[in-house]
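Field notebook, page 382. I keep forgetting to write these up properly, so this time I am using the form the group agreed on. The chain and the ligand, flavin-adenine dinucleotide, are recorded exactly as supplied. Prediction of the bound pose follows.
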Amino acid sequence: MCPQQCIRFEQDDEGFYYPEINTEECLDCGLCERVCPELHQNEAQRPIEVLAAINKDEDVRMNSSSGGVFTLLANHVIDAGGVVFGVRFDEKWQAVFDCAETHEQVAAFRGSKYVQARVGNSFVRCKQLLDEDRQVLFSGTPCQIAALHRFLRKPYDNLLTVDFICHGVPSPKVWERYLDETVTEGRNAIDNIRFRDKCTGWKRYSLSIDFVKQKNSHTQTSPFTDNMFMRAFLANLTLRPSCHHCPAKAGRSGSDITIGDFWGIDIVKPDMDDNRGTSVVMINSTRGQKAVRRDFLKYSIVQYDDIVRYNVMMNLSANKHPHREMFFKGFNRGESLHMLMSRCLKPSVTKRLVYIAKDAVGVVKKKIQMISNAASCALKSM
Ligand SMILES: Cc1cc2nc3c(=O)[nH]c(=O)nc-3n(C[C@H](O)[C@H](O)[C@H](O)COP(=O)(O)OP(=O)(O)OC[C@H]3O[C@@H](n4cnc5c(N)ncnc54)[C@H](O)[C@@H]3O)c2cc1C
């Protein structure tokens, strides 16, 4: 927004981007403060309707993180001659925003990239397209959608905004270090990265990296519970500090639609769960309602409270890990991720004692069960 263009985004030691104002060129007009989404936060709002949904296109669904609803929404806009903004990998396998006008280009946005994406000039491009009367779908984290709305400063009938339930965004620098340490073949050998590979199921998804070599293509894969990068992300060691007090959750982003994983679907609607991915779709506006093409979905109407019960990230920010500072100090000293993980995620002595006690109780219970089974068999045979 800056009329002087004197604000740059610079990466800090942890790898997150922050605005830096060149005070010598700044006119003190205050426009940046008027559009700042951190300074101006919206009220929380509840959706008008909530669906459990599965895209009937099984191919799309299997290549998506959840039930493949994003692609359904995006393709609808493309079919109408519109433009879709989303996140793809760049040539260094970092996450960046881009815009797409074809189904093939939209395919690059499919699948979550669990790292903070660079917005670049996407907001400016989005505004130009809206002013040209093009239909636009803009997808992103809740804070990116809240920021876009403030940047635009007026509602547009031709804009559809889609955000997702968000755990928070990990540091691009930590992701880069992860790739440096684990991809011995070099970045050029990578063909694709899938953070949510469903080869081990949707609930126990894997992070997979596909490699191409002239004769020998192969995949390096590990379930999220064993993967170093995913464990650090989900333990809240590597999130952007602002994610620990997110200003855009619980409908505060002003998005038309919020999508996410339908955790708890096996309990809420077992017939909608085959462990290949079910989405939650929260419809927040009448525009959002029109955008969801139900004939392409297997769906069921559900209660908002069922979402919040099993997906706490809908309303709550992730708690900062107690060793987050220790992690980044070691990270900036150049310690390997392996070393940092074993130091920062090692359970405390008390927790280890609890695990040992639980194990011991389990063993004793099994022994008692075995003895009582043997005794009842002996009694029966007498
Ligand atoms: C950083 C992050 C944290 C998330 N945390 C949760 C959570 O805690 N709970 C939950 O239920 N769901 C979470 N999600 C959303 C979930 O992973 C799926 O993206 C969502 O359910 C949509 O799935 P889909 O099958 O409809 O489509 P998909 O094709 O999987 O969705 C892809 C969409 O995500 C966008 N996207 C991908 N990476 C990024 C990124 N780095 N920044 C911004 N946008 C991106 C794409 O542009 C596209 O719009 C998170 C996603 C991200 C990127």
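OBSERVATIONS:
- The mean pLDDT is 94.
- The first strand starts at residue 7 and ends at 11.
FOLLOW-UP: compare against the apo run.
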